[in-house]
Amino acid sequence: MGNKLSKTLKKNTPFPTINTQENPDFKYINGRRYHNVESVKYTLPNDDEEVDRLHQQHFLLRYIWQKNFASPVKHILNQNGTKVLDVGFMFLAIPKDSWADTINEMTRVLKPGGYLELVEINPMPFQMGPVSSQFFIPDDLRKRGLDPEIVYYLRTYFEKQENLENVIEEKNRLPYGPEAGKLGQAAVENTRLGFSHVKPFLQEALKISSEEFDNKLDIMVKELREYDTYHDTCCVYARKKEIIE
Ligand SMILES: C[S@@+](CC[C@H](N)C(=O)[O-])C[C@H]1O[C@@H](n2cnc3c(N)ncnc32)[C@H](O)[C@@H]1O
After folding, report:
1. pLDDT tens sequence across 190-214
2. How many Å lie between the centroid of ligand 1 and the Cα of residue 245?
3. What is the pLDDT of residues 121-140, one digit of tens each?
4. 138 Cβ neighbours under 8 A, 6+ residues apart
5. Does residue 14 have a pLDDT over 60?
6. Strand 164-175 to strand 230-240: parallel, antiparallel, or no bridges (unpaired)?
7. Looking at the record, which segments are called Disordered (predicted)?
8. What pLDDT was estimated at residue 21?
9. β-strand 115-121 against 32-35: which pairing, if any?
């Protein structure tokens, strides 16, 4: 397997072999790599499989929004030296009481005239089947200090940030049902993967065996199609004022 170049590299290049098993920044559960920072809420892994899922998620979101970004920044992006910081889709990472500080900090590091844009989702979907309702549990997120409803308050956080102006909110849906065609299928697959990636944590919260988890997950993905389940998602963006108050 592999092309000539990769064979040559494997043979001759002394790649540093980092034994991450011994790296205290990570912990391994069922062969998956997770962060090992006690104070961090985030439960998704940070290995290649998860990077692939995030990649797929990126294309899903791009399809839903029919664009890569909403802010009017094309002219800024075309200038040499423009910097973009991607920190979106953080509802599983930022604690409820840190959203205001996070937005303040993101605004602080932004250049005057630059844009802050966040896309978030309501992790609790609508029109759920009975097994899906057992899987999507907002109280588990609340217990971990996260805010499952952040999508509905994002705009207010932007409006309260005095150095941001022209706040715009766009709303959309992430659908799973058959009417959404291949998009729905891809969304179901992405969610199935997402749940299987947080399995160790969710299994504990649901207090079910590994086998029961897998069986329920199979039922849930069928329900997502059957019940035409969907999520609310929103995009909020604003410009940093040229003259800072
Ligand atoms: C759902 S992913 C979104 C990734 C990307 N922004 C996107 O939209 O595809 C959330 C990202 O936040 C990162 N993350 C989670 N907790 C974090 C923390 N405490 N500090 C910095 N990054 C964090 C994760 O590693 C992951 O890359």
Report:
1. 999 999 999 988 898 899 999 999 9
2. 31
3. 999 999 999 999 999 989 98
4. 123, 124, 148, 149
5. no
6. antiparallel
7. 1-22
8. 61
9. unpaired
In a domain, 48, yes or no: yes
Instruction: State which residues form the domain around 144.
Output: 44-240
Q: Is residue 32 part of a domain?
A: no
Pocket of ligand 1, candidates 90, 96, 191: which has the most ligand atoms within 8 Å of its Cβ, to mutate? 90
Which atom of ligand 1 sits closest to the CA of residue 86? 6
Dihedral pair phi/psi, residue 241, rounded to 5°? -60, 145
With beta carbons less than 8 A apart as the criterion, state whether 146 and 95 touch. yes
Distances (CA, A) of 22 to 17, 27, 54, 197: 12, 9, 26, 22
Distance of CA 24 to the CA centre of its chain: 24
Query: Per the structure, how many domains does the chain have?
Result: 1
With cut-offs at 50, 70 and 90, classify the pLDDT of residue 174. very high
Longest CA span, the chain: 60
Inside any domain, residue 236? yes
Model confidence at 103: pLDDT above 70: yes
Task: Indicate whether residue 46 lines ligand 1 (CB < 6 A).
Answer: yes
Evaluate whether residue 108 is within a structural domain.
Answer: yes
